Amino acid sequence: MNALELLKQDHEEVKELFEQAEGTEESKEQRNIFNQIKKALQAHARIEEGIFYPAMEKHEQLRDLVLESYEEHKQIKILLKEMDDLVTGSEKFEPKLRVLQEIVEHHAEEEEEEIMFPQVRELLDDAALEQLGRKLEVAKGNRSKAA
DSSP for 23-37? Predict the structure, then answer.
């Protein structure tokens, strides 16, 4: 699978999980969905930071975008940790979940449509995107087995 399509699929999976979380009032169910969101975001960040971003950093015109993406990932990880530390039923949980959703959706939209992916498509041919996609798929598979 093309690397950009694989990353886009991950974004879509997380977006659907956020929609599920919005649709429930029960704090225990929200926590359960949050745990799925957290797992998906951590897996996605690992393959982006470990494979995709390093490959993109080699292109001068993408360096600043990659550095910005690392910073956005850092913000997301901090928020995930804060949410993890909250007790079930905390009044801070839902507002933090909404902020997390806003940050993640902004990050995904910026990558997919506005800035990074369009430039990557100009820089890499289909074969290179497929090869990178295979590396990402392998990393996702290895990670799943280790978890």
Answer: T---HHHHHHHHHHH
Residue 67 identity (one-letter amino acid): L
Which amino acid would we find at residue 93? F
How many whole angstroms separate alpha carbon 86 and alpha carbon 96?
10
- Distance, in Å, from the CA atom of 7 to the CA atom of 11, rounded to the nearest integer, reads 6
Q: How far apart are CA 76 and CA 14, in angstroms?
A: 13
99-128 b/e (C-beta count within 10 Å ≥ 16 → b)? ebbeebeebbebbbeebbbeebeeebeeee
Query: 132 near 124, Cβ under 8 Å?
Result: yes
DSSP string covering 43-80, please?
HHHHHIIIIIHHHHHTSGGGHHHHHHHHHHHHHHHHHH
Q: Is 96 exposed, middle or buried (0-12, 13-18, 19+ CB in 10 A)?
A: middle
Residue pLDDT, tens place only, 48-82? 999 999 999 999 999 999 999 999 999 999 999 99
CA dist 37 and 102 (Å) reads 13
